[in-house]
Amino acid sequence: MNREDDDMKASATAATGAAESQMGALSRLIQAANDEGLSYQDMANRAVDTQTGTRLQKQALQKLVKTPPVNPPSIAQLQAIANAIGRPLWQVKEAAAAQWLEYEATELAGYDEEVRIIVGHLAGKTKADLLRWRMMIEAEERARRESGE
Question: Positions of the region Disordered (predicted)?
Fold first, then answer.
């Protein structure tokens, strides 16, 4: 391989990275599932909202990645997507909100009240304090693993 080949390869890699960074959050979630080995057909086979019977076809999932529609998917379609890619519904909703509404969730969805209180206390700490707390938490986790808990 010569330098020209290296330059072309680097250019192609940069273009792929740029395309992914412009991709919306829900599109990235679906693409990530595909990148991890889940084919679009496998996703389509799993893309069912069991409450409403709403199904998504392979082409619809591909379109959400390649040329997303102007309007976001319905709640039933979001549930079908969550089932298709094996992610929780809240994460798929959050990604759809980011992609279509430019809304970035800041709440601690999926965590109980105790975790939210702890994070609330840490929010105002300095970088040095945060590092100290992180080290304490990681040391406690290591001690549990090593003791067999």
Answer: 1-22
